[in-house]
Design a protein that fits this description.
CATH architecture: Orthogonal Bundle
Number of helices: 6
Helix content: 40-55%
Number of strands: 6
Strand order of the largest sheet: 1-2
Strand content: 5-15%
Order of helices and strands: EEEEHHHHHEEH
């Protein structure tokens, strides 16, 4: 069954995590990116779009992700923003889950469910507008990509660990010409 909204037990999927308004729902989950610490994924994403260093600083120091988003909506965009915004979101979401193993575990626990950023605020690009039943769901797609990457990394690490423990031999991973 698809996860249709990032609320309640799935709130951690939101770029606003761990906030809901001004309320802190869980432990802080700051993201370190290029020697700067961002309070949330939303702070990092909004900061990346700003062309002006003053605007970037205002976003970094915004009290909540909602305020960071409002400030980000009023900044002069970097000239290449439309071309790079999906890549920036992918890197932002990837950093969030790579830097917070507890959140990575929760993301992996969603299994193979479709992740849909269903919302009532009209965002049909990053999410799915529940009022109009339309949306591209780019954030949900990116979360599913990151989940697949995390799963692959964990599986690969398991194989490496098995090899180190002598439970798996490299030769058993390859088919030789003689066996073919």
């Amino acid at each position: 069954m698809p996860i249709r909204e990032f609320k309640d037990e799935y709130r951690f999927l939101s770029n606003f995590w761990p906030y809901q308004g001004k309320e802190l729902l869980g432990p802080p989950a700051p993201i370190l990116w290029k020697d700067v610490t961002y309070a949330t994924a939303e702070h990092l994403y909004q900061c990346a779009k700003a062309n002006n260093p003053f605007d970037r600083q205002r976003i970094i120091t915004a009290e909540t992700p909602g305020l960071a988003k409002r400030i980000g909506g009023d900044v002069e965009l970097r000239p290449d923003w439309e071309q790079i915004k999906h890549e920036v979101m992918l890197k932002t979401v990837r950093a969030k889950f790579q830097q917070h193993q507890d959140l990575a575990g929760k993301l992996l626990a969603t299994g193979n469910e479709e992740l849909v950023e269903g919302n009532w605020h009209g965002d049909g690009h990053w999410g799915y507008d529940l009022k109009t039943s339309h949306g591209e769901n780019w954030l949900g797609r990116i979360l599913m990509i990151v989940r697949a990457e995390l799963r692959f990394r964990r599986e690969l690490q398991g194989i490496v660990n098995d090899m180190r423990m002598g439970r798996l031999h490299v030769e058993s991973c390859f088919v030789t010409e003689d066996a073919a």
